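Annex B. Sample input.
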Amino acid sequence: MTNRSRIMGVGMSVPSRVVTNHDLAAKMETTHEWIVERTGIEERRWVSPGETGAGLAAKASREAIEKAGIAAEDLDLIIYATLSPDIYFPGTGVLLQRELGIGHKGVPCLDIRQQCTGFIYGLSIADAYIRSGNFKHILLVGAEIQSTGLDVSTRGRDITVIFGDGAGAAVIGVATDEAHMILSTHIHADGTEAEILWTETPASRNHPRLSAEDLEAGKHFPQMKGKNVFKHAVTRMPQAIMEGMQANGIKSIADIDMVIPHQANLRINQMVAQMIGLPPEKMHNNIQKYGNTTAATIPICMHEAIELGKIKPGDLVCLVAFGAGLTWGSAFLRF
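Annex B, continued. Sample output.
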């Protein structure tokens, strides 16, 4: 068969520091019950001083590389998805490359910024490169450190309670049979309402990029119109799932073994499952423990599902996400 791709190994890494809802309630006007009712989140991981996105990504990557049965030197490309780069520039991909000790090999690094849909976009890029025959082993990483950019006060609580830090990684390689391969990817964007979920500053369109007035107004913290985002998410995610089913001739939801959705809000995922008639046991969620780690949620969630035996070799798996931009997409694969 012509070149097709497959996921060879998956890894994850989260900081050791656990931040519970009760911890946040001590710093802002909120309660454990309020957070669980609206988001499903009970705790999340936040970094301690000295921890970096590249460091978390390196740990996740080493696990993925080991499970793929290759060495870091075998990598042909690194795709790094994040909305929270370690520094303004260069991209964090080269910092990860350096952490993995393969800078001398000249391995190209591609940094992408599709927020919560970053891993799906990255998978579509990796799949295309493998199909083209240009590369044999691609490291795809989603990594975020959100905690250092949050307003930990009552003013920022609606967003602050949601986000966590972490990294997930996957090695994408050449498929050797049809029982283990990426079937299709489907990616979309609509910038019409980009401002309903964004961080406004610092911004190169402003002079200066960040002013004292911006800081005072909290414009350097993420802002979200939650009801609008919820409405779009529960519309676009089912569409992306149905698009993948149609593309692959999948007649029934019952034929899908596991759905791994982006972990933005447990209520969103439960509604999506209900809308498409997916039984709870066929969707894995772990936002309860990790919060929303943006580009890292899907590989972290997939890693856990594999470890729990919820995803087995040969299973038909759907990955689906929606995020800022607005961006959304899905991927179907035989694991």
